Amino acid sequence: MTLLECLTPLQKTEIVFKIIESIATALAIIVGGIWALFRFRRQRENYALIDFTVDIKFHKNKGEWWIVELLAFIENKGKVRQEIELFDFELASINDSDKVDISKNFGGQVLFPNIICKGSFLPKQSKYFFIEPGLKNKYSFISRVPIDSEIVLLHSWFNYLDGIHSHAAEKTLKVPKPKRSY
To answer: Which residues in the chain land under pLDDT 70?
Structure first.
């Protein structure tokens, strides 16, 4: 007499339903895993989703200079923490006396020949920084711009710690004419 022959019909039915339940559970786990992987790849949750902008704020004209604040804003719209290094900038200008030349190095854009300053938004003692998901960080650098500058260009860039990917942003502004006090 075999084991199945000893069982009542009700017990046999119960075993069949337990087998079907186990198979259904295993299939649900497999389908759920495939769906999660598909969604993860389609929504690019494994990639950086960073909004990076820069701005220039003219505060006050002092003698032959404008005191300016160079600003960088980084917003992590993704779902993972991003680690960033080499957070540099360059501020350049074009003056009334400059020729308007095109630069092949910058894809045929106008060349701003006068470098006003170069620097980093990253403190010297730091090798990298990070930004958590959902946060928007502001970085600032105070500089000066000659009042005879006509247009300024702020170019900033950073590298992700993976050593492969980078991000850049630019802002161009007309330099305000100094207010004359009478």
So the answer is: 1-4, 40-47, 180-182
CATH architecture of 50-174: Sandwich (2.60)
Q: What are the structural domain ranges in the chain?
A: 3-42, 50-174
The whole-number pLDDT of residue 45 equals 62
Q: Rounded to the nearest 5°, which phi and psi values hold at 132?
A: -75, 155
Q: Ramachandran region of residue 53, left (φ > 0), alpha (ψ -120 to 50) or beta?
A: beta
d(CA 174, CA 61): 14
pLDDT value at residue 66: 96
In this predicted structure, what is the pLDDT of residue 40? 67
Q: Minimal CA–CA distance to 51: which of 141, 126, 158?
A: 158
Q: What is the per-residue pLDDT for 64?
A: 92
Residue 13, sorted as left (phi over 0), alpha (psi -120 to 50) or beta, turns out to be alpha
Pairing mode, strands 65-76 and 50-62: antiparallel
